[in-house]
């Protein structure tokens, strides 16, 4: 019985020991090295597009704000801007509204080249570095309005 126990222990030790090359042998194995780069984007918007203080509302008055998009290389994206909280429901015309009332001042949102900002947005492809988009606000109102503060809120969305 004792002889059987010693043989069983020797056999177990042999099975549990990893294979090793003899003095003249070589063992080669491979190992995968992996990296998963995920699609990612960031959107940076200014806190406000400000027409400043004026004495009269003059059509053609402009102001500019820059929005920045940074996506991993080759990531397609679309930058969209809604019509704002006070847009005309029929025409979609963007409007600044008096903070103390319902009087409005019409304005347009343009791309840097004076083309209207498209409803479907502006498409691009990520490069890994920031890509800037100039947004030009332009007053189109020709009728004078009462003194006061006028505001709107635009929602800027980045789809990728």
UniProtKB/TrEMBL annotation:
Keyword Signal assigned: yes
Domain Spore coat protein U/FanG: start-end pairs: 28-157
Signal peptide start and end residues: 1-21
UniProt key word Signal: yes
Keyword terms: Signal
InterPro entries membership: Spore_coat_component, Spore_coat_U/FanG
Any matching Pfam family: SCPU
Name of protein: Spore coat U domain-containing protein
Organism per entry: Tsuneonella litorea
């Amino acid at each position: 019985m004792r002889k059987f126990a010693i043989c069983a222990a020797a056999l177990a030790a042999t099975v549990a020991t990893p294979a090793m090359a003899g003095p003249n042998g070589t063992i080669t194995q491979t190992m995968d090295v992996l990296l998963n780069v995920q699609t990612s984007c960031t959107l940076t918007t200014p806190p406000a597009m400000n027409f400043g203080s004026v004495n009269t509302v003059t059509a053609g008055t402009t102001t500019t704000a820059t929005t920045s998009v940074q996506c991993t290389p080759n990531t397609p994206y679309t930058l969209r801007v809604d019509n704002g909280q006070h847009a005309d429901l029929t025409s979609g015309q963007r409007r600044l509204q008096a903070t103390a009332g319902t009087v409005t001042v019409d304005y347009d949102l343009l791309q840097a080249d004076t083309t209207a900002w498209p409803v479907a947005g502006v498409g691009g492809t990520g490069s890994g570095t920031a890509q800037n988009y100039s947004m030009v606000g332009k007053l189109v109102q020709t009728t004078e309005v009462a003194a006061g503060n006028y505001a709107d809120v635009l929602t800027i969305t980045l789809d990728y």
